[in-house]
Amino acid sequence: MRFLFVHQNFPGQYRHLAASLAGEHEVVALGDAARLSGRPALPGVRRVGYDLAAAEKGTVPWRPLRPLDAALRRAAVVAGAASRLKAKGFVPDVICVHPGWGEGILLRDVWPDARMLGYFEFFYRLSGSDVGFDPEVSRSSENAALMVRGRNAALLLGMEECDSGVAPTRWQRRQLPPMFRERCEVIHDGIDCGEVRPDPGAQIVLKRQGLRLTRANEVVTYAVRNLEPYRGFHVFMRALPALLQRRPRVHVVIVGGTEVSYSPRPSGARTGKEKLLAEVGPKLDAAASTSSAICRRPTIGACCRSPRRTST
Question: Which residues contact 104 (CB under 8 A, 6 or more apart)?
Fold first, then answer.
């Protein structure tokens, strides 16, 4: 069989599935060329990049329409790349696509007989989800409803083209409209227990602080793509003073970038890291409240220690 995986940031959630199928089937991946260029190839998977710069330039002045506009532009570029694949004789039996960025909107027009399986990762709601889960973080404005509808418009167009869908958790499936929920199954992304498992010899070496942390130490870690409120960074940081007072020998290691993935940009500071250090730093020991407290991606940050036991 022939499988086509469509994801702007391939492999994304398809890393293991695509690699597994590549052993017995023809597997092609279609993704954003700029993103594919810096990623290692998967054995047996032929990657084809589309050039998003080929999309018609321009902006939509009304903000709620921008996500839909961007999705339709991307859909047109992806359809062009798909048509070139078809012209070379590639006709997939199954298309696995993440509808989040509009890539699957026009694929049915290129390959009408292919079965499309969507990865239904997220659907926006006005409360309890992207909006309304934390008064400090959630986007709140008179246009909140319009912004949510605008984001969902592209998702609905892409999901409509899918024969069926997959959501990684029951909660994510529950966010979907009933008509799509009925054709969606819950299949967890899975955990590679051969790779992610307890290691008695595991250790973290922090050269700048002259520390080597092993299982003999008390260690609390916080690791995310970016240090932002959307990922609970503000809650974690505000809990540290109490944690350090109760556990004077604990080491806290924080790993993450300083960009913004989903949260609104912080006010009064360049990054979420900077803002929370300014707020919480005075309550931590001197070594942890300086610029070494959390280092830049991708290295590991320094330890936060109780004021009674300073780091070196």
Answer: 6, 75, 78, 95, 97, 98, 116, 118, 158, 161, 162
Which residues on neighbouring strands pair with residue 263, listed in sequence order?
Answer: none
Q: What is the 3-state secondary structure (H, E, C) of 244-277?
A: HHHCCCEEEEEEEECCCCCCCCCCCCCCHHHHHH
What gap in Å lies between CA 258 and CA 226, rounded to an integer? Answer: 6
Sequence-distant (6+) residues with CB within 8 A of 65 are: 150
Instruction: Report whether 140 contacts 133 (CB < 8 A).
Output: no
- For the chain, what are the domain ranges? 2-186, 204-304
Convert the pLDDT of each residue in 234-292 to its tens digit: 999 999 988 988 888 899 999 998 888 877 777 777 888 888 888 888 887 643 433 33
CA distances from 80 to 72, 86, 187 (A): 12, 10, 31
Residue type at position 150: G
CA dist., res. 224 & res. 234, Å (int): 13
Q: Report how far apart, in Å, the C-alpha atoms of 42 and of each of 97, 158, 189 are.
A: 17, 26, 18
| Distance between CA atoms of residues 200 and 202, nearest Å | 6
Q: Number of C-alpha atoms within 13 angstroms, CB side, residue 159? A: 25
Q: Are 238 and 280 spatial neighbours (Cβ–Cβ below 8 Å)?
A: yes
Question: What percent of the chain clears pLDDT 70, i.e. is strictly above it?
Answer: 87
The distance from CA 237 to its chain's CA centroid, rounded to whole angstroms, is: 21
Beta partners for 46? Answer: 28
- What CATH superfamily classification does 2-186 receive? Glycogen Phosphorylase B; (3.40.50.2000)
How many helices (H) and strands (E) in the chain?
Answer: 9, 12
DSSP type of residue 210:
T
